[in-house]
Amino acid sequence: MSDSDSRPAAAPDSALGALTDAARRSDLGLVLGTLAVIYAAATLLTATSGLNSVVGLLETLTFLGLVYALSALALNLQWGYTGLFNIGVAGFMAVGVYTMGMVVRSPDPAFGPPGLGLPLPVGILAGTGMAALIGAVAALPALRLKADYLAIVTLGLSEIIRLTLQSSAFDTFLRETIGVGTGGGRGMGMPDNPVRELFLVDGQAGTPTPFGDLVFGIFGDGGLGIAHPILIGWGYIGVLAVVLVGYYLLLERLGRSPFGRVLKAIREDEVVADSLGKNVNLVKIKVFVIGCALMGLAGILWFGSQGNVSPTPQFMPLLTFYVFIAVIIGGSGSNAGSVIGGLVFAAALFEGPRRVGGTVRGLIDAQTPPSFADALVSLDPVTLLAYATENIAPLQFVFLGLVLVFIIHRRPDGVLGDRIETAAAVDLSERPNGGEADE
Amino acid sequence: MGTTESSLVDTVRARPGLLLVAVLGGLLLVDLLAKLAGVSVGPIGGALSVDRFRSNLWSGLVIGLVIGLAGIGLSLTYSILSFANFSHGDLVSTGAFTGWGVAFLIAGFGDVPVRTLLSVRDAGSASPGDIGAHILTTPGAILVGLVAAFVVTAAVALALDRAFYKPMRDRDGISILIASIGAALIVRYLLQFVYGSDRRGITASVDASNLVFGPLGISIDAHELTIVVAALGLMLAMHFMLQRTKLGTAMRAMADNKDLALITGIPAERVVTATWIIGGGLAGASGYLYVLLRGTIQFDFGWLLLLLIFAAVILGGIGSVYGAIAGGLVIGVVFTTSTIWIPSDFNQAAAFAVMILMLLLRPEGLFGGVSTA
Predict the structure, then answer these.
(1) CA–CA distance, A282 with A270 (Å, rounded to integer)
(2) Do A324 and B178 touch (CB under 8 A)?
(3) Quick one: which of A232, B53, B300, B323 has the fewest CB in 10 Å?
(4) How confident is the model at residue A99, as a pLDDT?
């Protein structure tokens, strides 16, 4: 899978070429370059609406990019490294988020289901642990099934989890036995984000802490005039970025360890790994446990910070496919690719089209027809465009599908597929004395 | 894992999970009998009227036939093209929307604007009663709609194959599976774009819609009877096609051993084309019938049905057409009778759980790895 074409052979002919070459060789450079391109495009799109909307859009894009990158990294461990085709990501995230909510929520809340009332770190640990536990259960079929069967089983499991959380009977059962609830179809409110309390005393708007005063004074009402929730959002993005670096380092370390080499060996040929005396089953269970724990934590950081969660719009299998597309864009097997895939997916496929659609809709001066049939019989391309831009959401999914098919057809290894993690500890395509070792 | 026909003890020792499921199934059966008899011993038994059980069983069979019909196509594509087709559920929806568009056009032509009819009530404000589609009042429209659902969906399936799957014939199953997820997104959201996203009523209500068979003492809903007759007819046609025609023999040969089939000169691409036409057409017909059963339509109902269809196909042994039909019936009955023991929130989860158990204990399916049609 690896080849040496990606390494620049000749000297670059310009300063810009040298810069792109340097960026291509460094993972951090690639990630920051991607981010810069996304920021530039987003700034261009909203430049006319003032600084506040520019910074707001950048905040949304960065948040989504980071949470997709986190989820993609977790999935990459299972799929990219080990070849386990797990399409139950949404289910494991739901387990993490709901466990965290049930542990942390107050035992006697004003509204919504009761919880155990334990501190937030305990809840995050419990949620991650529970996702790991369910991952261990899900690993049992992974030991015996072919990839496409495993896909169906994990999808079924994630739907069972969603339907269970949605069920009011399960809610009642939990309330009666251990005194906590899921809230059924209405969902539950998530605990307050501690980052908010860094800026505001008790999280109340209007009572900033000294740190909040300082930040708001420079960037907020006292300075650049950026809305305070956006600034607090940037604070949370800092937390996410730190966690992302942690995920990345952990997975890179894991990938280069002897354990990581076993994973890649299993991906390439399970029988060979088995006959070389590796305990394939145990390794698969471990990968499921670690990957699902990371998915659970990513779910907590993502949905746990969003106020309210409910099973049906949020944890549908579609969420799993989003994460999959992010991994595929980056190229399965590459951690840096997963991060870039997450950022690109969030900006170009998830949030971008609806923003562009909204902008285009604002430029068209026509009534939106109530249905596609009405738009069609009007025989007016402007009316049709008005309908299309007003209903950009379904078209966005169509676009998503086209991109997915296109990547699978043309670039099945993703944008960084040429750098897929090789199973061997050293790059076998490289001559022993022909240059530096592949870091 | 090969179970030999040796002593029972050996089998039990080799497959403890199977024993557990057998014991559990036995307990449920005893409990069911006790419930029907109205006896109550400890946790076992209780009260369950025979009528309720019979109606559960019947509706389970009807849903099962529809799921089995949809499963045939999924099973065919799996055995002949070797991939799990995640866009199959959206072919089911495609058939429902296009078929009902045509059925509406015939049932309500003249009284209601054509755009309302063809868009399945997305445009305009006509109610299902205004259009009046029902098997007893407009049998011709319902029948033509069924044919249209088959034909249009077969064409869509074929187009998807040419555009997306044909360029990757020699790729591995997982890559094609991912492409089929992309195809599923494209089809589902084009349906939403064209037909709108709201759930809406389709069939008109008619007085005395139950057909009473005097001598037998049973009364059956006319739509349910239509579904049973249509599904069984299509399944029989499928059976004769597979067993009696040259195409059927070729399909079974392709499913059994692709290389051998190619060596013997079977025109592979023609068989694949036929597979998509038949599989896609049956998916469309089943979607159309499902809407006839439920009376409502929504753009993503086929996708939501897909896991149940997979469950049916896996239960019967993935790749086996007869297994898919049998699996559909089992899943349908599990779906409706599970409410005797568990809250109705969980009946879908119960069907998925049966599927997962089956994969763990007997991945080759009920019919022991018959991958030949």
Answers:
(1) 13
(2) yes
(3) B53
(4) 94
pLDDT at A128 over 70: yes
Angstrom distance (rounded) from CA A224 to CA A368: 37
| Radius of gyration of chain B from its Cα atoms, rounded to whole angstroms | 22
* 3-class SS of residue B44: strand
pLDDT (tens digit per residue) in A47-84: 788 888 888 899 999 999 999 999 999 999 998 888 88
Gap between the Cα atoms of A386 and B93, Å rounded: 26
CA–chain centroid gap for A264, Å, is 23
What architecture (CATH level 2) is domain A27-419?
A: Orthogonal Bundle (1.10)
Residue ranges per structural domain of chain B: 49-361
Q: Which residue is associated with the tokens 């005063």?
A: A213
Buried b / exposed e over A289-317, threshold 16 CB at 10 Å, is bbbbbbbbbbbbbbbbbeeebbbeebbbb
CB A192 within 8 A of CB A109: no
Contacts of A410 in chain B (CB under 8 A): none
| Whole-complex ipTM | 0.86
**Which numeric CATH code is attached to B49-361?**
1.10.3470
Q: How far apart are CA B42 and CA A107, in angstroms?
A: 35
> At a CB cut-off of 8 Å and minimum separation 6, what does A56 contact?
A227, A230
Which of B180, B303, B352 has the most A C-beta neighbours within 10 Å, making it the best mutation to test the interface with A?
Answer: B352
- pLDDT tens-digit map of B80-98: 888 899 999 999 999 999 9
Subunit contact A402:B186, Cβ cutoff 8 A: yes
CB nearest to B352's CB, from A151, A156, A166:
A156
Q: Are the C-beta atoms of A263 and A421 separated by less than 8 Å?
A: no
**Is the separation of the CB atoms in B333 and B65 below 8 Å?**
no
DSSP state of A200: B
For residue B213, give the 3-state DSSP assignment: strand
DSSP B109: B
| Structure-block tokens of residue B51 | 């009528």
Q: How far apart are CA B225 and CA A239, in angstroms?
A: 60
For an interface test with A, which of B20, B172, B181, B360 has the most A Cβ atoms less than 10 Å from its Cβ? B181
